[in-house]
């Protein structure tokens, strides 16, 4: 079990990025949150098996069809087991 923090930059708000991220994360069995940040980026914090988190990173690098991802930064952290599911955060 691992935890990952992902920041996604580019045209990533208003293009169903959060919705699609939540759908994919739930299908992968990952817990966590996704939210829009004031600077126009998207923040993802997720916990799960490393192979599933890698799949989430792959998605974040391309995003949904209408997105234009310019940069993805991520770092692994120790899991905190604080999430029950995968939800939007505001």
Report on this model:
By secondary structure, this protein is of the alpha+beta class. It has a single domain (11-77), classed as Alpha-Beta Plaits. It is 28% helix and 40% strand. It has helices at 17-28, 50-62; strands at residues 2-11, 31-36, 42-48, 68-77, 86-88. A five-stranded mixed sheet has the order 4-1-3-2-5, covered by helices on one side. A hairpin with a 5-residue loop joins strand 2 (31-36) and strand 3 (42-48). Helix 1 packs antiparallel against helix 2. The longest helix is centred in the middle third of the chain and has 13 residues, at 50-62. The chain is globular. The mean pLDDT is 97.
Query: Can you give the helix content as a percent range?
Result: 25-40%
Strand arrangement within the widest β-sheet reads 4-1-3-2-5
Amino- and carboxy-terminal Cα gap: 25 Å
The CATH architecture name reads 2-Layer Sandwich
Number of strands: 5
Spans of at least 5 consecutive residues with low confidence: none
CATH top level assignment: Alpha Beta
Q: The CATH topology is what?
A: Alpha-Beta Plaits
Strand content: 35-45%
Oligomer: single chain
Order of helices and strands: EHEEHEE
Shape: globular
Overall SS class: alpha+beta
The averaged pLDDT comes out at 97
The major pleated sheet works out as: 5 strands, mixed
| SS summary, helix count | 2
């Amino acid at each position: 079990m691992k935890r990952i923090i992902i920041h996604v930059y580019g045209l990533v708000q208003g293009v169903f990025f959060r919705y699609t991220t939540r759908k994919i994360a739930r299908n992968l069995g990952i817990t966590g949150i996704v939210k829009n940040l004031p600077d126009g980026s998207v923040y993802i914090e997720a916990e799960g098996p490393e192979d599933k988190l890698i799949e989430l990173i792959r998605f974040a690098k391309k995003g949904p069809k209408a997105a234009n991802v310019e940069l993805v930064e991520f770092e692994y952290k120790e899991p905190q087991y604080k999430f029950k599911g995968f939800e939007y955060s505001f």
